[in-house]
# Entry
Amino acid sequence: MFCPECGSMLRPKDKGGKRILQCSCGFTKALGKEDHAELTEKLAKGKKIEVIENVETHPKIKATCGKCGHKIAYYWTQQTRGADEPETRFFKCTECSYTWREYS
Ligand SMILES: [Zn+2]
Ligand SMILES: [Zn+2]
# Structure
């Protein structure tokens, strides 16, 4: 943290029980709760981004669940072995999360 007045490094000091930053030119800055709140907010925002990345993005299609009989499932494909092998189709019930596969 540098002094906005002269550009020197600010030194932490205790003044009347409060933590402040003081410069050799006389400038002082209070180290209040505001700084702490700002940091906490930044950390909370970082967490939010993480959650968004984990959201299910597979398209939903009509497929009957073999476990609960629900008619809508998430659908995606995956190449399991070599490139000349047919890809495997995966289904995941939107109701009970039961997952099954189907070879084409
Ligand atoms: Zn200064
Ligand atoms: Zn199901």
Q: What stands out?
A: Strands lie at 11-15, 18-22, 28-30, 60-62, 72-78, 88-93, 99-103.
